[in-house]
Amino acid sequence: MNEEPRRRLAERQGRVVAALVAGGEVPEGFDAERMRVQAWSLVAKRRSVVARLRPDAAAAAGDDLAALFAAYAAERAEPPSGYRADADDFAAWLRRRARTRPAGSRLWWSRLLRR
What we know:
Elements: H1 4-21, H2 32-53, H3 55-61, H4 65-74, H5 83-96
Helix pairs in contact: 2-3, 2-5, 3-5
């Protein structure tokens, strides 16, 4: 079997993925606005999962969560492998920007330490 068609298909698929998750150029034949909306949707999905996995990071971001997560995602060539890694990376990204959980707030798991 000729491998050239598979190679070309893989290359085209890679361009689509890059446009969706890494800010790459929208491939020819795709609607740029639809690709932009889909890319935004993927970032929103990541943000919601990250907020569930790391409520401390979501609390630290506060009302700026959407904007901060979008900035974090835009700085990455591709998302980390796995939501847990994404959540931990976002929390570290916030810490580097001196965004920590609000004073007086408790870590979600701290209630488990009480007797």
